[in-house]
Write a sequence for this structure.
């Protein structure tokens, strides 16, 4: 294993940056040769971002040709390529129905869960689909480093701090109080919102951490005022709240953040009003 | 090769593993958790319907106990069922105080819905995302205890020496290297094995790895023939259409638009236990009353519930059916078919979650199991919906407590166990796969096994089918020793992991086929066309399967009856 790691081969360097390549591909019309005219319309050009730390200095793109099957999701497609063409193609996947959050990828620029996204919905007119990892922090191929994403959650104490009079509550919670949470507690921690936020570069709390904070902030059973202090100091201003709304669970972190900011502002005003 | 040491090593970070970790951390144990996916990706997240607890007014744990034992077709060990049902109310209330967002009644109490095989409505639920809610809340509480989590690490083998468990050899998936983990106590919490079948609700990760860890270490596997086929899997995909739909009043219809459950379970109808319904569906199809052009499925009808109730009570079903099948269940019928869903069998344990080695329940020191991978047995021959989530929390907590006790009572003799032999063996297994130049690809072998199991070890079994399955298995076993892994890089090698998982699937499938062939009766989810009746005189006992060279050796263990004598079972 050591020997294998030692040898870092000089690969064919893909000297052109990906973005230019993409633009060139998009500009060039599909050449209509005799061969292409005879090919069935369902042949897909699948351009996948590849990166193997043992072999590559930086990411490269590999193009696969497959005939698209009806009803195939992005994950189905990747699986088929992995099984029938290239066993080294690596990606995360688990539940297959959009519930676990493992398979986030970028498809033709759109961040989605691969298992619930139909290829036919996203492919371009010239039968092309470009699949990239969710963000730049890549371990291998489409597998990104999730550790910073999960570690960040701890900054906002993502657990309940029960109110002192919890015993009297007798495990009751009004339906109105449940509705106050909206759908924040349905987050599957897929990382798609954070992928847009680039908050790791700015040092701000990412949208997923803000949604988690909202989930406990709005829970009547929680009494963690320290968390409020943490999030009100770090209300994110640098990332696009609109882009963060790419959430596959329709949670809209941007809206949640705005709501918490307004609440925090109101509380400060009230405090000032009370102070004598 | 590096060696890490913890008091307790937990393999698998779903609900059971996480709950055990929380309990052990509360008792100041040094806990290492390994999981082949990040903990929140565990399959517990997919559980939908709810969690049972006798917290309602007029409800009693004894009624829950009777329902569970009846549902198990009297194969459940009643001492374990007692603990499950007695502890349920405290566990559910604890989850609520941890912040689980349960659905509520108008009075603000935890809402409970009717569920299969239950005499009263006692299934507490969070819409139809109960598993997700419980898992993420438990993960939040786990974070509070600051555990050591080795995410994306795969257990290759258990280290067993001098008849006790001393740790495990583990593969770091990101770096591609082997680590030995020493521990005073090891917990198997790796979940079920739905992926041994071609049609399953289970995620890709449900490959029964913990079962193979135990089986390869010479330990027995209990009641492996009892595989639950959930009646309502999405036709063509296998994904779960939760029992919650039937709890809210859905109908099952055949091609004649009849609610055919009237013939099979006239009292409970669509809320009979899952084994009865799965067989009913297969029977309807076999008699030509299946739906669709191929007449190979039936319909689930929720249209009469109305859009408002569907959005409130079963929104995930509506969403998934729309995403996967492109239909709106408010207006259309959902095509369903029985699908491999849950493994009643597994690594045998006593009520303290200690893994046992023989018919006398002698424990194997240092090794524990909890959750779906274990077989206590609380579910016997058939599990009731809502009892699985409960099992993970009740026995996950007990596992944490018992392991902490074990650690306190047994000071580890550091360095007494030689790990190098186990490391070399594990290294050899990985190297053989990484350097392979020919052989069967893992997905080809896996598909062959899945089809074999689905056809011959499915809802209905027979001597002919099981015998031919045994013969075919031998060929697959030979092929599994020469799998071709195309990806040679050590970093995050999914091709390698799939090959290891495939080998595991083949390994323990042997015990499923053998146990099913030997059991000449129909009980719970094990249905023999050649032996259609239940036979308490001969078969009121647990099957135990042990590896014996290339074959399986079977022995039997008595069922613990404690308060509810077996009777005829009808719904």
């Amino acid at each position: 294993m050591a020997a294998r790691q030692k040898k870092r081969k000089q690969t064919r360097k893909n000297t052109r940056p990906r973005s230019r390549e993409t633009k060139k591909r998009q500009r060039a019309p599909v050449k209509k040769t005799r061969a292409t005219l005879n090919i069935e319309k369902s042949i897909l050009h699948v351009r996948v971002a590849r990166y193997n730390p043992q072999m590559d200095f930086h990411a490269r793109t590999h193009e696969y040709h497959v005939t698209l099957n009806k009803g195939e999701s992005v994950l189905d497609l990747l699986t088929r390529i992995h099984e029938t063409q290239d066993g080294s193609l690596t990606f995360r996947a688990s539940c297959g129905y959009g519930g676990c959050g493992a398979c986030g990828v970028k498809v033709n620029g759109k961040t989605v869960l691969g298992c619930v996204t139909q290829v036919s919905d996203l492919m371009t007119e010239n039968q092309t689909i470009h699949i990239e990892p969710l963000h730049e922090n890549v371990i291998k191929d489409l597998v990104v480093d999730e550790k910073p994403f999960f570690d960040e959650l701890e900054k906002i104490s993502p657990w309940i701090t029960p109110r002192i009079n919890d015993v009297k509550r007798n495990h009751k919670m009004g339906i109105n109080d449940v509705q106050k949470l909206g759908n924040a507690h349905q987050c599957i921690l897929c990382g798609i919102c954070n992928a847009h936020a680039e908050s790791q570069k700015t040092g701000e709390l990412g949208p997923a951490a803000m949604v988690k904070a909202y989930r406990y902030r709005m829970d009547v059973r929680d009494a963690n005022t320290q968390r409020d202090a943490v999030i009100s100091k770090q209300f994110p201003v640098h990332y696009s709240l609109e882009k963060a709304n790419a959430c596959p669970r329709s949670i809209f972190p941007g809206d949640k953040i705005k709501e918490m900011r307004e609440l925090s502002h109101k509380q400060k005003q009230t405090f000032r009003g009370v102070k004598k | 090769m590096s060696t890490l040491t913890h008091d307790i090593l937990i393999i698998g970070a779903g609900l059971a593993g996480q709950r055990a970790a929380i309990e052990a951390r509360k008792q100041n144990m040094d806990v290492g958790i390994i999981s082949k996916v990040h903990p929140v990706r565990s399959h517990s997240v997919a559980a939908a319907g709810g969690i049972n607890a006798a917290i309602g007014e007029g409800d009693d744990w004894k009624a829950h106990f009777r329902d569970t034992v009846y549902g198990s077709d009297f194969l459940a060990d009643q001492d374990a069922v007692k603990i499950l049902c007695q502890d349920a109310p405290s566990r559910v209330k604890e989850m609520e105080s941890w912040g689980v967002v349960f659905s509520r009644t108008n009075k603000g109490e935890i809402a409970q819905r009717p569920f299969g095989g239950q005499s009263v409505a006692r299934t507490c639920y969070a819409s139809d995302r109960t598993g997700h809610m419980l898992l993420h809340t438990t993960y939040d509480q786990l974070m509070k205890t600051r555990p050591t989590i080795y995410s994306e690490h795969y257990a290759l083998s258990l280290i067993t020496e001098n008849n006790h468990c001393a740790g495990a050899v583990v593969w770091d998936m990101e770096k591609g290297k082997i680590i030995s983990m020493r521990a005073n106590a090891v917990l198997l919490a790796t979940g079920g094995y739905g992926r041994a079948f071609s049609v399953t609700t289970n995620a890709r990760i449900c490959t029964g790895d913990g079962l193979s860890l135990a089986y390869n270490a010479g330990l027995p596997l209990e009641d492996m023939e009892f595989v639950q086929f959930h009646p309502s899997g999405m036709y063509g995909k296998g994904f779960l259409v939760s029992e919650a739909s039937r709890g809210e009043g859905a109908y099952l219809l055949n091609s004649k638009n009849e609610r055919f459950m009237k013939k099979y379970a006239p009292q409970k109808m669509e809320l009979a236990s899952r084994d009865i319904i799965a067989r009913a569906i297969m029977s309807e199809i076999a008699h030509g009353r299946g739906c669709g052009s191929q007449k190979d499925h039936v319909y689930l009808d929720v249209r009469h519930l109305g859009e408002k109730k569907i959005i409130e009570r079963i929104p995930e079903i509506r969403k998934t059916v729309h995403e996967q099948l492109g239909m709106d269940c408010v207006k259309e019928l959902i095509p369903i078919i029985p699908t491999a869903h849950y493994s009643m069998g597994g690594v045998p344990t006593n009520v303290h979650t200690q893994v046992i080695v023989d018919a006398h329940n002698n424990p194997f020191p240092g090794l524990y199991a909890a959750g779906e991978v274990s077989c206590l047995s609380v579910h016997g021959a058939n599990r009731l919906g809502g009892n699985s989530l409960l099992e993970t929390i009740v026995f996950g907590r007990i596992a944490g407590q018992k392991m902490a006790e074990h650690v306190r009572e047994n000071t580890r003799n550091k360095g007494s166990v030689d790990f190098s032999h186990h490391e070399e063996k594990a290294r050899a297994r990985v190297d053989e796969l990484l350097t392979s130049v020919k052989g069967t690809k893992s997905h080809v072998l896996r598909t062959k096994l899945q089809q074999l199991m689905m056809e011959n070890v499915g809802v209905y079994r027979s001597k002919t089918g099981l015998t031919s399955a045994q013969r075919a298995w031998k060929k697959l076993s030979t092929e599994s020793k020469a799998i071709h892994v195309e990806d040679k890089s050590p970093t995050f090698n999914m091709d390698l992991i799939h090959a290891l998982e495939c080998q595991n699937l083949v390994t323990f499938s042997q015990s499923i086929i053998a146990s099913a062939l030997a059991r000449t009766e129909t009980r719970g989810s094990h249905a023999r066309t050649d032996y259609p009746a239940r036979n308490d005189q001969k078969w009121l006992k647990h099957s135990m399967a042990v590896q014996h060279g290339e074959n399986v050796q079977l022995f039997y263990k008595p069922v613990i009856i404690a308060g509810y004598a077996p009777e005829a079972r009808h719904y």
